[in-house]
Amino acid sequence: ATRGVVRPADMSFVPFYRQYRRRSAVYFKTFSDAAWAAEEAAFTAEQARLRDIAARSVDVMHLGEMQPERDHNLVSEISYPVTYRGRQGRDARSGGFIEFSMAVRPGPLVLQATYWGSERKRDFDILVDNVKVATQRLDNDRPGKFFDVDYVLPEALTKGKKSVRVRFVPHDRNTAGPVFGVRMYTAKPGAVA
Question: Model pTM?
């Protein structure tokens, strides 16, 4: 058992040999007091950021999961569901695409996509109602981590609409994604020019 060295609370352990027929091991990160303070502050800030975005979310698409893909009218070609580090996603190979509906509301909106940071070089376009809003390059951007990219949408693209079609299209001999989730959320007031 631990005594005052594990956060958030002490823990009890049993010897590995007593874990009969259980093929698992547990690893713990260790921190100095200063490193822990920095890690805790970063975690707290990230949790606040996620709560803020969740509160401003208009729609969330969980790619690679059957029901959300049906609910968002997903259509695709040369596209496959994937699982990385326990997260579901989807990619589209050269010549293919991924397309689905996302709800929108009046005002400035941001389309956010989640990617895996250890992808080799790949380039693809992101379109909203057949208008290219971004070209994304993945190239080992953040090794070993998932990360979000925000794409600010022109208000004219969503004005007067209840939904839009979002499309990921790989460049020739590339892959689009994998994409591990897409979110539509309202921009903070004054944040979008």
Answer: 0.81
Q: What φ, ψ does residue 47 adopt, rounded to 5°?
A: -65, -40
Contacts of 57 (CB under 8 A, 6+ apart): 183, 184, 185
User: For residues 24 and 191, which has the higher predicted lDDT (pLDDT)?
Assistant: 24
Domain count, the chain: 1
| pLDDT tens digits for range 41-65 | 999 999 998 899 899 999 999 999 9
CATH code, domain carrying 108? 2.60.120.260
Decide: 152 and 76 in contact? Cβ < 8 Å. Answer: no
Residue 3 is assigned to a structural domain of this protein: no
Q: CA nearest 90: which of 167, 183, 150, 180?
A: 180
Instruction: Establish if 22 belongs to a structural domain.
Output: no
